[in-house]
Amino acid sequence: MFLKIAGAVLASFGLLVTVIFWVPQVVNRPGLREMLGRRYPLVYVIYVANGPGLVLLGLLLFLKGLGG
Hints:
The chain is mainly α. It has one domain (2-67). The protein is built from 4 helices and no strands. The model has no long low-confidence stretch (mean pLDDT 93).
């Protein structure tokens, strides 16, 4: 039961981060590029870890909870 709840929460949060990242009015990517300079690709590393990465982890936990 705990794995299903934790998986659903993580997947939901990951989807929320993904949607927020791709809405232009929320994340000012040109401003981030100007501010970070050469370190700008780090934004995508953080996004992948907190967006699609959490969705994948949440789905894996959810599916594991269904089997147990």
